[in-house]
Design a protein that fits this description.
2 copies of one chain form a homodimer.
Chain A lengths: L6 E8 L1 H4 L7 H11 L2 E9 L3 H14 L2 E5 L10 H9 L3 E3 L1 H11 L6 H4 L3 E3 L3 E5 L3 E7 L2 E4 L3 H11 L10 E7 L7 H9 L4 E10 L2 E10 L2 H17 L5 E2 L16
Parallel strand pairs in A: 1-2, 1-3, 3-8
Antiparallel strand pairs in A: 4-5, 6-7, 7-8, 9-11, 9-12, 10-11
Protein backbone atom coordinates (compact mmCIF):
# COMPACT_ATOMS: atom_id res chain seq x y z
CA UNK A 1 0.00 0.00 0.00
CA UNK A 2 1.54 3.31 -1.06
CA UNK A 3 1.79 5.99 1.59
CA UNK A 4 -0.89 8.63 1.56
CA UNK A 5 -0.65 12.18 2.78
CA UNK A 6 -3.12 13.27 5.43
CA UNK A 7 -3.83 16.95 6.05
CA UNK A 8 -5.91 17.79 9.13
CA UNK A 9 -7.93 20.81 10.17
CA UNK A 10 -9.95 22.16 13.10
CA UNK A 11 -12.75 24.71 13.11
CA UNK A 12 -13.44 27.19 15.91
CA UNK A 13 -16.95 28.59 15.78
CA UNK A 14 -16.81 31.70 17.93
CA UNK A 15 -19.99 33.26 19.25
CA UNK A 16 -22.32 33.39 22.25
CA UNK A 17 -25.28 33.39 19.86
CA UNK A 18 -24.61 29.81 18.74
CA UNK A 19 -24.30 28.55 22.32
CA UNK A 20 -27.43 30.37 23.47
CA UNK A 21 -29.36 28.80 20.62
CA UNK A 22 -30.30 32.16 19.09
CA UNK A 23 -28.45 31.33 15.87
CA UNK A 24 -28.03 28.00 14.11
CA UNK A 25 -24.53 27.39 12.86
CA UNK A 26 -24.41 26.88 9.11
CA UNK A 27 -20.65 26.92 8.63
CA UNK A 28 -19.53 23.57 10.07
CA UNK A 29 -21.19 21.42 7.44
CA UNK A 30 -20.22 23.68 4.55
CA UNK A 31 -16.58 23.78 5.61
CA UNK A 32 -16.46 20.02 6.32
CA UNK A 33 -17.62 19.21 2.79
CA UNK A 34 -15.47 21.91 1.15
CA UNK A 35 -12.31 20.77 2.96
CA UNK A 36 -12.99 17.10 2.23
CA UNK A 37 -13.23 17.88 -1.47
CA UNK A 38 -9.76 19.41 -1.24
CA UNK A 39 -8.12 16.53 0.61
CA UNK A 40 -8.23 18.16 4.03
CA UNK A 41 -9.84 16.26 6.90
CA UNK A 42 -11.77 18.21 9.49
CA UNK A 43 -10.86 16.43 12.74
CA UNK A 44 -12.48 18.65 15.36
CA UNK A 45 -14.89 21.56 15.64
CA UNK A 46 -15.45 23.63 18.76
CA UNK A 47 -18.16 26.14 19.48
CA UNK A 48 -16.85 28.62 22.04
CA UNK A 49 -18.14 31.86 23.58
CA UNK A 50 -16.93 35.44 22.99
CA UNK A 51 -14.48 35.23 25.90
CA UNK A 52 -10.84 36.18 25.49
CA UNK A 53 -9.17 33.49 27.63
CA UNK A 54 -11.16 30.72 26.00
CA UNK A 55 -10.54 31.93 22.44
CA UNK A 56 -6.80 32.42 23.02
CA UNK A 57 -6.33 28.97 24.52
CA UNK A 58 -8.46 27.24 21.88
CA UNK A 59 -6.47 28.93 19.07
CA UNK A 60 -3.17 27.92 20.64
CA UNK A 61 -4.29 24.36 21.29
CA UNK A 62 -5.62 23.86 17.77
CA UNK A 63 -2.80 25.50 15.83
CA UNK A 64 -0.33 23.15 17.53
CA UNK A 65 -2.53 20.08 17.11
CA UNK A 66 -3.83 20.45 13.54
CA UNK A 67 -2.32 21.35 10.19
CA UNK A 68 -4.86 24.12 9.59
CA UNK A 69 -7.22 26.03 11.86
CA UNK A 70 -10.25 27.95 10.63
CA UNK A 71 -12.24 30.34 12.77
CA UNK A 72 -15.65 31.86 12.07
CA UNK A 73 -17.28 34.79 13.82
CA UNK A 74 -16.33 37.80 15.89
CA UNK A 75 -14.59 40.03 13.33
CA UNK A 76 -17.16 42.84 12.97
CA UNK A 77 -17.10 46.46 14.18
CA UNK A 78 -18.69 46.13 17.63
CA UNK A 79 -17.42 45.52 21.16
CA UNK A 80 -18.34 41.81 21.05
CA UNK A 81 -16.05 41.20 18.05
CA UNK A 82 -12.84 40.14 19.74
CA UNK A 83 -11.53 37.32 17.57
CA UNK A 84 -8.78 39.35 15.85
CA UNK A 85 -7.29 40.73 19.05
CA UNK A 86 -7.46 37.26 20.64
CA UNK A 87 -5.51 35.76 17.73
CA UNK A 88 -2.85 38.49 18.19
CA UNK A 89 -2.65 37.53 21.85
CA UNK A 90 -2.44 33.82 21.00
CA UNK A 91 0.52 34.49 18.70
CA UNK A 92 2.06 37.01 21.09
CA UNK A 93 2.31 39.73 18.44
CA UNK A 94 1.19 43.40 18.37
CA UNK A 95 -2.33 44.22 17.20
CA UNK A 96 -2.84 47.29 15.04
CA UNK A 97 -4.08 48.88 11.81
CA UNK A 98 -3.17 47.13 8.58
CA UNK A 99 -2.49 49.65 5.76
CA UNK A 100 -4.09 47.67 2.97
CA UNK A 101 -7.13 46.84 5.08
CA UNK A 102 -7.55 50.54 5.90
CA UNK A 103 -7.33 51.36 2.19
CA UNK A 104 -9.99 48.75 1.34
CA UNK A 105 -12.36 50.12 3.98
CA UNK A 106 -11.70 53.77 2.98
CA UNK A 107 -12.48 52.92 -0.65
CA UNK A 108 -15.66 51.15 0.40
CA UNK A 109 -17.11 53.55 2.97
CA UNK A 110 -15.44 56.79 1.84
CA UNK A 111 -13.12 58.89 4.05
CA UNK A 112 -16.14 60.59 5.67
CA UNK A 113 -17.98 57.45 6.70
CA UNK A 114 -15.00 55.47 7.89
CA UNK A 115 -15.90 55.83 11.55
CA UNK A 116 -13.70 54.60 14.39
CA UNK A 117 -15.94 51.56 14.77
CA UNK A 118 -15.51 50.61 11.12
CA UNK A 119 -11.79 51.29 11.34
CA UNK A 120 -11.58 48.57 14.00
CA UNK A 121 -12.18 46.08 11.21
CA UNK A 122 -8.78 47.08 9.75
CA UNK A 123 -6.94 46.00 12.91
CA UNK A 124 -5.17 42.67 12.59
CA UNK A 125 -2.25 40.89 14.26
CA UNK A 126 1.21 41.93 13.00
CA UNK A 127 2.31 39.64 10.21
CA UNK A 128 -1.23 38.69 9.22
CA UNK A 129 -2.07 38.27 5.53
CA UNK A 130 -5.46 39.59 4.43
CA UNK A 131 -8.27 37.37 3.18
CA UNK A 132 -10.44 39.08 0.58
CA UNK A 133 -14.12 39.66 1.38
CA UNK A 134 -15.92 40.38 -1.88
CA UNK A 135 -19.31 40.59 -0.13
CA UNK A 136 -18.93 43.29 2.52
CA UNK A 137 -15.25 44.21 2.06
CA UNK A 138 -14.00 44.01 5.70
CA UNK A 139 -11.24 41.41 5.28
CA UNK A 140 -10.40 38.27 7.19
CA UNK A 141 -6.78 37.33 7.72
CA UNK A 142 -4.34 34.46 7.88
CA UNK A 143 -1.72 34.12 10.64
CA UNK A 144 0.55 31.20 9.91
CA UNK A 145 -1.78 28.14 9.75
CA UNK A 146 -4.80 29.98 11.19
CA UNK A 147 -7.49 31.41 8.88
CA UNK A 148 -9.80 33.96 10.50
CA UNK A 149 -13.12 34.33 8.69
CA UNK A 150 -16.45 36.06 9.13
CA UNK A 151 -19.36 34.20 10.69
CA UNK A 152 -22.03 35.16 8.17
CA UNK A 153 -22.21 32.09 5.91
CA UNK A 154 -22.34 34.05 2.67
CA UNK A 155 -19.22 36.02 3.62
CA UNK A 156 -17.42 32.98 5.01
CA UNK A 157 -18.06 31.04 1.81
CA UNK A 158 -16.82 33.93 -0.32
CA UNK A 159 -13.61 34.15 1.77
CA UNK A 160 -12.87 30.49 1.03
CA UNK A 161 -12.29 31.43 -2.61
CA UNK A 162 -9.32 33.59 -1.61
CA UNK A 163 -8.06 30.98 0.86
CA UNK A 164 -8.21 28.02 -1.54
CA UNK A 165 -4.93 28.62 -3.43
CA UNK A 166 -3.06 28.94 -0.12
CA UNK A 167 -4.01 25.45 1.05
CA UNK A 168 -2.04 22.31 0.51
CA UNK A 169 -4.41 19.36 0.42
CA UNK A 170 -3.50 15.80 1.27
CA UNK A 171 -4.85 12.71 -0.44
CA UNK A 172 -8.62 12.81 -0.48
CA UNK A 173 -10.66 10.47 1.63
CA UNK A 174 -12.77 8.56 -0.86
CA UNK A 175 -16.09 7.08 0.13
CA UNK A 176 -18.62 4.57 -1.14
CA UNK A 177 -22.02 3.87 0.35
CA UNK A 178 -24.48 1.01 0.15
CA UNK A 179 -27.68 0.44 2.04
CA UNK A 180 -29.92 -2.39 3.17
CA UNK A 181 -33.53 -2.63 4.33
CA UNK A 182 -32.69 -4.44 7.54
CA UNK A 183 -31.53 -3.28 11.00
CA UNK A 184 -27.84 -2.48 11.20
CA UNK A 185 -27.31 -4.89 14.10
CA UNK A 186 -27.87 -7.76 11.65
CA UNK A 187 -24.55 -6.91 9.98
CA UNK A 188 -22.59 -5.87 13.04
CA UNK A 189 -20.11 -8.78 13.00
CA UNK A 190 -19.67 -8.55 9.22
CA UNK A 191 -18.90 -4.84 9.35
CA UNK A 192 -16.32 -5.29 12.06
CA UNK A 193 -14.72 -8.20 10.25
CA UNK A 194 -14.42 -6.27 6.96
CA UNK A 195 -13.06 -3.18 8.70
CA UNK A 196 -10.42 -5.22 10.55
CA UNK A 197 -9.18 -6.79 7.33
CA UNK A 198 -7.85 -3.50 5.97
CA UNK A 199 -5.76 -0.77 7.45
CA UNK A 200 -6.72 2.74 6.44
CA UNK A 201 -10.40 1.82 6.15
CA UNK A 202 -13.28 3.01 8.27
CA UNK A 203 -16.86 1.83 8.00
CA UNK A 204 -19.68 3.87 9.45
CA UNK A 205 -23.13 2.39 9.98
CA UNK A 206 -26.13 4.74 9.94
CA UNK A 207 -29.70 3.62 10.56
CA UNK A 208 -32.52 5.24 8.63
CA UNK A 209 -36.23 5.00 8.12
CA UNK A 210 -37.54 5.39 4.59
CA UNK A 211 -41.24 5.17 3.69
CA UNK A 212 -41.91 3.45 6.99
CA UNK A 213 -39.20 0.80 6.55
CA UNK A 214 -36.08 0.67 8.70
CA UNK A 215 -32.69 0.15 7.14
CA UNK A 216 -29.04 1.06 7.44
CA UNK A 217 -26.48 2.80 5.27
CA UNK A 218 -22.89 1.60 5.39
CA UNK A 219 -20.32 4.21 4.43
CA UNK A 220 -16.80 2.99 3.63
CA UNK A 221 -14.04 5.59 3.74
CA UNK A 222 -10.39 5.29 2.76
CA UNK A 223 -7.66 7.24 1.03
CA UNK A 224 -6.90 4.08 -0.98
CA UNK A 225 -9.14 3.39 -3.98
CA UNK A 226 -8.12 -0.30 -4.10
CA UNK A 227 -8.85 -0.82 -0.40
CA UNK A 228 -12.25 0.75 -0.89
CA UNK A 229 -13.12 -1.49 -3.85
CA UNK A 230 -11.96 -4.69 -2.17
CA UNK A 231 -13.74 -3.88 1.09
CA UNK A 232 -16.93 -2.95 -0.73
CA UNK A 233 -16.89 -6.26 -2.60
CA UNK A 234 -16.37 -8.23 0.62
CA UNK A 235 -19.17 -6.38 2.33
CA UNK A 236 -21.55 -6.92 -0.59
CA UNK A 237 -20.72 -10.63 -0.67
CA UNK A 238 -21.26 -10.90 3.08
CA UNK A 239 -24.67 -9.25 2.80
CA UNK A 240 -25.67 -11.54 -0.07
CA UNK A 241 -24.44 -14.59 1.88
CA UNK A 242 -26.82 -13.67 4.68
CA UNK A 243 -29.70 -13.74 2.19
CA UNK A 244 -30.18 -9.97 2.08
CA UNK A 245 -30.02 -7.46 -0.74
CA UNK A 246 -27.86 -4.37 -0.90
CA UNK A 247 -28.47 -1.18 -2.87
CA UNK A 248 -25.92 1.25 -4.16
CA UNK A 249 -25.54 4.77 -2.75
CA UNK A 250 -27.72 6.32 -0.07
CA UNK A 251 -31.49 6.01 0.34
CA UNK A 252 -33.76 9.02 -0.03
CA UNK A 253 -34.24 10.94 3.19
CA UNK A 254 -37.55 10.48 4.91
CA UNK A 255 -38.59 13.79 6.46
CA UNK A 256 -40.90 12.06 8.93
CA UNK A 257 -38.00 10.29 10.63
CA UNK A 258 -36.43 13.52 11.80
CA UNK A 259 -36.62 17.18 10.95
CA UNK A 260 -33.24 17.02 9.25
CA UNK A 261 -30.62 14.51 8.24
CA UNK A 262 -29.98 12.11 11.07
CA UNK A 263 -27.08 12.18 13.46
CA UNK A 264 -26.04 8.88 14.80
CA UNK B 1 -27.65 43.00 43.06
CA UNK B 2 -28.69 39.65 44.51
CA UNK B 3 -26.47 36.69 43.72
CA UNK B 4 -27.61 34.48 40.91
CA UNK B 5 -26.86 30.82 40.42
CA UNK B 6 -25.16 29.83 37.19
CA UNK B 7 -25.25 26.26 35.96
CA UNK B 8 -23.00 25.40 33.01
CA UNK B 9 -22.97 22.59 30.47
CA UNK B 10 -20.92 21.26 27.58
CA UNK B 11 -22.01 19.12 24.65
CA UNK B 12 -19.86 16.49 22.95
CA UNK B 13 -21.13 15.59 19.48
CA UNK B 14 -19.45 12.28 18.69
CA UNK B 15 -19.27 11.05 15.12
CA UNK B 16 -17.06 10.93 12.03
CA UNK B 17 -20.13 11.57 9.89
CA UNK B 18 -20.54 15.12 11.21
CA UNK B 19 -16.86 15.97 10.62
CA UNK B 20 -16.86 14.48 7.12
CA UNK B 21 -19.90 16.58 6.25
CA UNK B 22 -22.07 13.55 5.46
CA UNK B 23 -24.51 14.44 8.22
CA UNK B 24 -25.64 17.85 9.46
CA UNK B 25 -25.78 18.11 13.21
CA UNK B 26 -29.26 18.95 14.44
CA UNK B 27 -28.71 18.48 18.16
CA UNK B 28 -26.60 21.47 19.16
CA UNK B 29 -29.25 24.09 18.55
CA UNK B 30 -32.04 22.03 20.07
CA UNK B 31 -30.05 21.33 23.22
CA UNK B 32 -28.83 24.94 23.52
CA UNK B 33 -32.39 26.26 23.52
CA UNK B 34 -33.74 23.46 25.74
CA UNK B 35 -31.02 23.97 28.36
CA UNK B 36 -31.40 27.74 28.29
CA UNK B 37 -35.11 27.40 29.06
CA UNK B 38 -34.15 25.37 32.13
CA UNK B 39 -31.57 27.80 33.47
CA UNK B 40 -28.53 25.87 32.21
CA UNK B 41 -25.99 27.68 30.05
CA UNK B 42 -24.30 25.76 27.27
CA UNK B 43 -20.72 27.05 27.39
CA UNK B 44 -18.97 24.83 24.87
CA UNK B 45 -19.75 22.25 22.20
CA UNK B 46 -17.20 19.98 20.56
CA UNK B 47 -17.59 17.79 17.54
CA UNK B 48 -15.13 14.90 17.79
CA UNK B 49 -14.45 11.72 15.79
CA UNK B 50 -15.18 8.10 16.76
CA UNK B 51 -11.72 7.67 18.29
CA UNK B 52 -11.25 6.29 21.77
CA UNK B 53 -8.40 8.51 23.03
CA UNK B 54 -10.10 11.67 21.87
CA UNK B 55 -13.49 10.75 23.35
CA UNK B 56 -12.00 9.70 26.70
CA UNK B 57 -9.97 12.87 27.09
CA UNK B 58 -12.84 15.14 25.98
CA UNK B 59 -15.19 13.50 28.49
CA UNK B 60 -12.66 13.88 31.30
CA UNK B 61 -11.87 17.49 30.41
CA UNK B 62 -15.52 18.51 30.20
CA UNK B 63 -16.83 16.71 33.28
CA UNK B 64 -14.22 18.51 35.38
CA UNK B 65 -14.79 21.89 33.72
CA UNK B 66 -18.59 22.06 33.47
CA UNK B 67 -21.50 21.29 35.76
CA UNK B 68 -23.14 18.98 33.23
CA UNK B 69 -21.87 17.19 30.14
CA UNK B 70 -24.13 15.85 27.40
CA UNK B 71 -22.97 13.53 24.65
CA UNK B 72 -24.76 12.57 21.45
CA UNK B 73 -23.92 9.71 19.09
CA UNK B 74 -22.10 6.42 19.11
CA UNK B 75 -24.38 4.23 21.27
CA UNK B 76 -25.80 1.85 18.64
CA UNK B 77 -25.13 -1.86 17.97
CA UNK B 78 -22.22 -1.67 15.51
CA UNK B 79 -18.43 -1.61 15.77
CA UNK B 80 -18.27 2.18 15.31
CA UNK B 81 -20.43 2.78 18.41
CA UNK B 82 -17.80 3.22 21.10
CA UNK B 83 -19.15 6.06 23.26
CA UNK B 84 -20.33 3.87 26.16
CA UNK B 85 -17.02 1.98 26.53
CA UNK B 86 -15.11 5.27 26.26
CA UNK B 87 -17.15 6.77 29.10
CA UNK B 88 -16.36 3.68 31.23
CA UNK B 89 -12.68 4.23 30.48
CA UNK B 90 -12.94 7.94 31.29
CA UNK B 91 -14.43 7.12 34.70
CA UNK B 92 -12.06 4.16 35.24
CA UNK B 93 -14.90 1.72 35.96
CA UNK B 94 -15.76 -1.73 34.53
CA UNK B 95 -17.95 -1.93 31.42
CA UNK B 96 -20.55 -4.68 31.25
CA UNK B 97 -24.17 -5.74 30.85
CA UNK B 98 -26.80 -3.82 32.79
CA UNK B 99 -29.63 -6.10 33.99
CA UNK B 100 -32.45 -3.65 33.48
CA UNK B 101 -31.13 -2.65 30.04
CA UNK B 102 -30.99 -6.31 29.04
CA UNK B 103 -34.59 -6.77 30.23
CA UNK B 104 -35.75 -3.75 28.20
CA UNK B 105 -34.06 -5.04 25.05
CA UNK B 106 -35.33 -8.62 25.59
CA UNK B 107 -38.88 -7.30 25.98
CA UNK B 108 -38.52 -5.25 22.83
CA UNK B 109 -36.78 -7.68 20.47
CA UNK B 110 -37.84 -10.99 22.03
CA UNK B 111 -35.39 -13.58 23.41
CA UNK B 112 -34.91 -15.04 19.92
CA UNK B 113 -34.00 -11.80 18.18
CA UNK B 114 -31.78 -10.36 20.89
CA UNK B 115 -28.58 -10.96 18.93
CA UNK B 116 -25.11 -10.35 20.34
CA UNK B 117 -24.95 -7.10 18.41
CA UNK B 118 -28.18 -5.83 19.95
CA UNK B 119 -27.04 -7.04 23.37
CA UNK B 120 -24.08 -4.65 23.08
CA UNK B 121 -26.58 -1.82 23.56
CA UNK B 122 -27.18 -3.14 27.11
CA UNK B 123 -23.53 -2.63 28.07
CA UNK B 124 -22.90 0.45 30.19
CA UNK B 125 -20.27 1.62 32.67
CA UNK B 126 -20.68 0.26 36.23
CA UNK B 127 -22.73 2.68 38.30
CA UNK B 128 -24.51 4.17 35.30
CA UNK B 129 -28.19 5.09 35.61
CA UNK B 130 -30.33 4.35 32.55
CA UNK B 131 -31.97 7.06 30.45
CA UNK B 132 -35.27 5.93 28.96
CA UNK B 133 -35.58 5.76 25.18
CA UNK B 134 -39.28 5.65 24.31
CA UNK B 135 -38.55 5.72 20.56
CA UNK B 136 -36.30 2.73 19.89
CA UNK B 137 -35.86 1.37 23.45
CA UNK B 138 -32.03 1.04 23.60
CA UNK B 139 -31.33 3.25 26.62
CA UNK B 140 -28.85 6.04 27.18
CA UNK B 141 -27.25 6.43 30.59
CA UNK B 142 -26.04 8.91 33.17
CA UNK B 143 -22.66 8.62 34.90
CA UNK B 144 -22.33 11.25 37.59
CA UNK B 145 -22.70 14.59 35.72
CA UNK B 146 -22.40 13.04 32.24
CA UNK B 147 -25.52 12.23 30.19
CA UNK B 148 -24.96 9.87 27.27
CA UNK B 149 -27.63 10.14 24.58
CA UNK B 150 -28.35 8.84 21.09
CA UNK B 151 -27.38 10.91 18.07
CA UNK B 152 -30.65 10.58 16.14
CA UNK B 153 -32.43 13.87 16.92
CA UNK B 154 -35.81 12.27 17.52
CA UNK B 155 -34.33 9.82 20.03
CA UNK B 156 -32.11 12.44 21.65
CA UNK B 157 -35.07 14.75 22.15
CA UNK B 158 -37.15 11.96 23.66
CA UNK B 159 -34.33 11.10 26.08
CA UNK B 160 -34.33 14.67 27.39
CA UNK B 161 -37.77 14.03 28.87
CA UNK B 162 -36.29 11.41 31.21
CA UNK B 163 -33.24 13.56 31.95
CA UNK B 164 -35.18 16.72 32.80
CA UNK B 165 -36.18 15.87 36.41
CA UNK B 166 -32.56 14.98 37.22
CA UNK B 167 -31.23 18.43 36.33
CA UNK B 168 -30.78 21.30 38.70
CA UNK B 169 -31.13 24.53 36.76
CA UNK B 170 -29.56 27.83 37.75
CA UNK B 171 -31.13 31.23 37.29
CA UNK B 172 -32.20 31.64 33.70
CA UNK B 173 -30.43 33.99 31.39
CA UNK B 174 -33.11 36.43 30.29
CA UNK B 175 -32.85 38.21 26.99
CA UNK B 176 -34.40 41.15 25.18
CA UNK B 177 -33.82 42.16 21.59
CA UNK B 178 -34.30 45.35 19.60
CA UNK B 179 -33.28 46.13 16.05
CA UNK B 180 -32.42 49.11 13.90
CA UNK B 181 -32.26 49.73 10.16
CA UNK B 182 -28.74 51.05 10.22
CA UNK B 183 -25.29 49.41 10.22
CA UNK B 184 -24.20 48.11 13.61
CA UNK B 185 -20.97 50.13 13.52
CA UNK B 186 -23.06 53.28 13.98
CA UNK B 187 -23.87 52.16 17.53
CA UNK B 188 -20.56 50.54 18.42
CA UNK B 189 -19.52 53.08 21.09
CA UNK B 190 -23.03 53.18 22.57
CA UNK B 191 -23.22 49.39 22.88
CA UNK B 192 -19.87 49.20 24.61
CA UNK B 193 -20.76 52.05 26.95
CA UNK B 194 -24.07 50.44 27.98
CA UNK B 195 -22.47 47.03 28.47
CA UNK B 196 -19.71 48.47 30.66
CA UNK B 197 -22.22 50.18 32.92
CA UNK B 198 -23.59 46.91 34.24
CA UNK B 199 -22.00 43.78 35.54
CA UNK B 200 -23.72 40.55 34.55
CA UNK B 201 -24.88 42.01 31.22
CA UNK B 202 -23.79 41.01 27.75
CA UNK B 203 -24.87 42.69 24.54
CA UNK B 204 -24.53 40.93 21.22
CA UNK B 205 -24.76 42.82 17.94
CA UNK B 206 -25.91 40.90 14.85
CA UNK B 207 -26.13 42.43 11.39
CA UNK B 208 -28.96 41.38 9.09
CA UNK B 209 -30.43 42.18 5.72
CA UNK B 210 -34.19 42.32 5.45
CA UNK B 211 -36.02 43.10 2.20
CA UNK B 212 -32.83 44.56 0.79
CA UNK B 213 -32.14 46.86 3.75
CA UNK B 214 -29.23 46.34 6.14
CA UNK B 215 -29.73 46.56 9.86
CA UNK B 216 -28.58 45.16 13.16
CA UNK B 217 -30.20 43.34 16.04
CA UNK B 218 -28.95 44.01 19.56
CA UNK B 219 -29.52 41.19 22.02
CA UNK B 220 -29.17 41.98 25.72
CA UNK B 221 -28.66 39.04 28.06
CA UNK B 222 -28.56 38.93 31.84
CA UNK B 223 -29.74 36.82 34.75
CA UNK B 224 -31.01 40.04 36.36
CA UNK B 225 -34.38 41.33 35.17
CA UNK B 226 -33.71 44.83 36.54
CA UNK B 227 -30.31 45.06 34.83
CA UNK B 228 -31.93 44.03 31.59
CA UNK B 229 -34.67 46.65 31.84
CA UNK B 230 -32.31 49.48 32.78
CA UNK B 231 -29.82 48.59 30.08
CA UNK B 232 -32.53 48.30 27.46
CA UNK B 233 -33.86 51.74 28.36
CA UNK B 234 -30.39 53.30 28.14
CA UNK B 235 -29.77 51.67 24.79
CA UNK B 236 -33.12 52.82 23.41
CA UNK B 237 -32.48 56.38 24.61
CA UNK B 238 -29.02 56.33 23.03
CA UNK B 239 -30.42 55.20 19.71
CA UNK B 240 -33.11 57.89 19.81
CA UNK B 241 -30.52 60.52 20.75
CA UNK B 242 -28.63 59.67 17.57
CA UNK B 243 -31.76 60.36 15.55
CA UNK B 244 -32.51 56.73 14.74
CA UNK B 245 -35.50 54.53 15.43
CA UNK B 246 -35.47 51.20 17.23
CA UNK B 247 -37.95 48.34 16.88
CA UNK B 248 -38.81 45.73 19.43
CA UNK B 249 -37.85 42.07 19.02
CA UNK B 250 -36.09 40.57 16.04
CA UNK B 251 -36.68 41.32 12.36
CA UNK B 252 -38.07 38.68 10.01
CA UNK B 253 -35.39 36.52 8.46
CA UNK B 254 -34.62 37.26 4.83
CA UNK B 255 -33.83 33.98 3.08
CA UNK B 256 -31.90 35.77 0.32
CA UNK B 257 -29.27 36.94 2.78
CA UNK B 258 -28.12 33.42 3.54
CA UNK B 259 -29.45 29.94 3.17
CA UNK B 260 -30.13 29.74 6.87
CA UNK B 261 -30.07 31.92 9.97
CA UNK B 262 -26.90 33.95 10.10
CA UNK B 263 -23.83 33.27 12.16
CA UNK B 264 -21.82 36.27 13.12
Amino acid sequence: MTDKKTTTAALLIIGDEILSGRTKDANLNHLAVWLGERGIQLKEARVIPDEEDIIVSAVNHCRAEFYYVFTTGGIGPTHDDITASCVAKAFGVPFGYHDEALRILTDYYGEQDLTDARKRMAMIPEGGILIDNPVSRAPGFQMDNVFVMAGIPKVMQAMLRDIEPRLEGGDKVLSRAIYVYRGESWFSALLEQVQNQFSGLSIGSYPFMNKGVFGATFVLRSQHEDVLEQALKLLQQGIEASGEEWHEGEPEKDPRWSGSPMNN
